[in-house]
Design brief:
Blueprint: H1 3-14, H2 20-28, E1 32-34, E2 39-41, H3 44-48, E3 54-55, H4 61-75, E4 78-81, H5 85-94, E5 99-101, E6 106-109, E7 129-136, H6 142-154, E8 157-162, H7 171-174, H8 177-182, E9 185-190, H9 196-201, E10 208-212, H10 224-231, E11 238-240, H11 246-257
Parallel strand pairs: 3-4, 7-8, 7-9, 9-10, 10-11
Antiparallel strand pairs: 1-2, 4-6, 5-6
Length: 265
């Protein structure tokens, strides 16, 4: 049950369209959907503002399909990350409105009229709240950057992208300081030596979420070098997520970007 459903239920009781016993039955229903292989948290949206997100790697296409059907039936929307090509094909073939974002492996279903399902072409999205800017150091980092962008959009943020502006050609970044400073929060994705978040952090007065990627040669240690560099940044206002964790960065950015929900005011 999400916020909208709970509000409708309470308003129904207030307006005497829903009986007290029916409302009690709805509210006392177990907040778990048991699929056998998976137990879905049906009250995640009520507590956290967004339904449960599905990590697709390691799950079979059939398991993902059963999970997706249950989540869409419950909340009307869906975010699956790291889905294989086979699993994405099954989901898009069986779930109405499903969209595959092939670069990141995300599969999304958005409620009608929302903008989160727009394909992530890097040109931004006119829908959404505030502005989350996803800054990507190099083309090889794009899969992680797209995961961050898709996630933030699905959580209601307006997202814009700034790609291939790594420190090897710093003028590419400095030419877009106007965009950097318009964002409410920035997600900065980089591999190799991981220096880009420190540079961005020194240019803006906004939160910067650094995402180390596993892109790089042997001494990058699968992203450990970038992770340690970002953790040791001397720029203020930088937080760091795990290696290749575009989802975690996009989710955090959307929460920072969000103004208080009406039901919390």
């Amino acid at each position: 049950m999400g916020i909208d459903e709970l509000r409708a239920l309470l308003e129904g009781v207030r307006d005497e369209r829903v009986g007290v016993h029916d409302a009690l039955a709805a509210l006392s229903a177990p907040p778990i959907t048991d699929l056998g292989h998976t137990q879905l948290d049906a009250h995640r949206e009520l507590r956290c503002g967004h339904p449960e997100v599905v990590y697709g790697a390691g799950k079979t296409p059939l398991q993902l399909l059963e999970i997706a059907r249950a989540l869409v039936a419950e909340s009307g929307r869906l975010l699956v990350t790291r889905a294989s090509e086979d699993a994405a094909a099954v989901l898009c073939g069986e779930i109405p409105g499903a969209v595959h974002h092939p670069l990141s492996g995300c599969v999304t279903v958005e409620r009608p009229g929302a903008g989160g399902n727009a394909r992530d072409d890097g040109d931004g999205d006119d829908d959404g709240e505030g502005l989350v800017l996803v800054v990507c150091a190099g083309t090889s980092d794009l899969p992680v950057a797209e995961e961050a962008a898709v996630t933030a959009r699905m959580l209601g943020a307006k997202v814009e992208r700034l790609n291939d502006v790594g420190v090897a050609g710093i003028h590419r970044l400095l030419g877009r300081t106007d965009l950097l400073r318009r964002a409410r929060v920035l997600v900065v994705v980089a591999g190799m030596e991981g220096a880009l978040p420190s540079v961005v952090g020194g240019l803006v007065e906004r939160p910067v979420i650094a995402v180390p990627t596993s892109v790089g040669y042997g001494a990058s240690l699968g992203g450990v070098a970038a992770l340690l560099a970002m953790l040791n940044s001397c720029a203020s206002g930088i937080s760091v997520v795990n290696i290749d964790n575009g989802f975690g960065a996009g989710y955090q950015a959307a929460l920072i970007n969000r103004t208080p929900s009406p039901h919390l005011r």
